Each structure stands twice: as C-alpha cells, then as structure tokens.
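User: Here's a structure from my thesis project, written as structure tokens. My advisor, Dr. K., wants to see whether a designed sequence matches the one we expressed. Can you design one independently, without my sequence as a hint?
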C-alpha cells in the first residue's frame, strides 16, 4: 500500500469561524467564491451585504480552510469556506424553492418534508489552487456535524453529465435530486436543488 506523506506546513487545515472572525475574512471568502464560481471581479462588493446579513440568521455556522503562511509574522491564508443556517419560510431561497416545487407538481406533503425543518448549505467553495486535499468533503462533514435539523438542502448550477468536482462531492455525500433545471429569479442559469437526511452518516432518505 502506498503511503502518502503530508507536510503540515503546506497542507490546509480546518477552523470553525465565529461571526466576528468571518467578518474579518469576508472579502477573502468572497474572493474565493468569485474565483471558484467564475464570476467577474467586482461581484464581491454586491454580495458582501448579503453574506453579512446571513450572519444573523438562526443556526448560522461557518468553517474555513487555512493554508499556513511561510512567514510567521503573517496570518494564514483562507483557501476554502463553507457556511449555512437554518432555513425559514420568510427567506428568499426558501420561497423560491417552495414555489418551484409547487409548480413542478410536488404534492404538499413532500414539499413540507423537504422544507419543514432543514439546514441550508448556502455556500461551499474551494480555491482551484487548493483542490486535491479533499477539502470539500472535510468542510461539509465539519459544517454539518451536530446540526439540529431533519435534512440539509443546497442549490448548485446544472452541469452536463454532472461532471465537475461539486457534483461528484454532493453525490458521494448522498445528496439526491429535489428539483432539477430550476431557474431562480434574476438568474438565467439552470440550477439543481439537492438534499439529504441528517446526520450525514445516517440514511439518505
């Protein structure tokens, strides 16, 4: 069996981020989001108020991955971030998904099962330069550990044959289809809404 040797000085490590810590690293986190999603520079400024508002939502929590800085006098660099919170009927994402499920013909009982008590995995992003360490898997497991909700929900852009790192990660974690080829208001791209039961080491459905 091959032995893989890692160097703690060059390997990202996970940290839980409190709201004050997240605020301090907000622009850093948004830069990761923009690069990972391929958005134009400047998107950070328009998203900053929304991410700041999310800090006040019930059950908010965040996890980051830091890369050790070779200069002891400099802070370690954020290379990946994930956060989420408990979903609620007054939230925009909840309303959009509920309407999409209803228009797609889902019966009321299945809509309530999905949206009755869930944790929204709002953002999960890893810098391309930091991929290959399994950070997406680690971030998801750390973020969702001990979450008091029946299930976790997320939305991700549709990709041909589900052929990208995000889709492969979500399928490995047991996420299943809730709503496909859905378009959120103000965005032309099709999205998939995925979900699974919690905890992650329990049954999917």
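Assistant: Designed independently from the structure alone:
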């Amino acid at each position: 069996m091959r032995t893989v040797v890692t160097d703690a000085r060059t390997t990202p490590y996970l940290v839980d981020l409190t709201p004050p810590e997240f605020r301090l690293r907000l622009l850093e986190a948004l830069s990761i989001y923009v690069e990972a999603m391929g958005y134009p520079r400047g998107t950070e400024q328009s998203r900053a108020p929304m991410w700041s508002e999310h800090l006040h939502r019930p059950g908010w929590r965040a996890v980051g991955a830091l890369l050790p800085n070779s200069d002891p006098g400099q802070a370690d660099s954020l290379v990946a971030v994930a956060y989420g919170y408990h979903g609620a009927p007054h939230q925009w994402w909840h309303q959009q998904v509920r309407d999409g499920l209803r228009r797609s013909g889902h019966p009321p009982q299945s809509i309530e099962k999905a949206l009755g008590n869930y944790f929204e995995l709002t953002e999960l992003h890893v810098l391309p330069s930091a991929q290959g360490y399994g950070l997406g898997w680690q971030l998801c497991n750390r973020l969702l550990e001990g979450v008091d909700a029946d299930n976790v929900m997320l939305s991700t852009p549709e990709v041909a044959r589900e052929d990208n790192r995000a889709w492969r990660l979500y399928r490995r974690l047991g996420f299943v289809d809730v709503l496909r080829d859905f378009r959120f208001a103000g965005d032309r791209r099709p999205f998939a809404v995925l979900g699974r039961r919690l905890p992650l080491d329990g049954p999917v459905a």
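When you compare it with your expressed construct, this may help: The chain is about 35% helix and 25% strand.
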